[in-house]
Design a protein that fits this description.
alpha+beta; three-stranded antiparallel beta sheet; 4 helices; 5 strands; iron; 2Fe-2S
Length: about 160
Amino acid sequence: MIFHKTLGLHKFFRAHRLISTTKNRQCKFRHIDKVIPKNVLEYRENNSLQTKNGKVYDLKPMKIPLEKGKVYAWCLCGCSKSQPLCDATHDIAEMEIKLKPIFFKVENTGEYWLCNCKQTKHRPFCDGSHVKLANEEREKERLKKKEAAERKRLEAAKK
């Protein structure tokens, strides 16, 4: 890691920290394919043959600076400690993970939103699938609370 002399240590880490969003936002674009970046290595063997999605790591995407021409490995299994990029956790025999990383390149250097929910249709880039997952989670919680309240009401009626 290179430390810049003019930046304080806390400013250096703040400037190079990976940023995760906290808001659930609906996509405001009609033609999503024109907005989501394209994976230059989209048709590589491991990318197109893996039809299953990994476990959800987070319901928010992560903004990461990526360089043009460099090959990156996006974690599909959801077990990597360096999310959203792969750290080869899938190779640990005891974990019995069948999913492999998705290799990708970007066309231009810049910051990109990478998916952390692992449910995106445009691997590895976020397409808003986490919003649907978040809504499903909220609905499950609401139903659990409703069932618990109904059980309490029935128990109180029995007494």
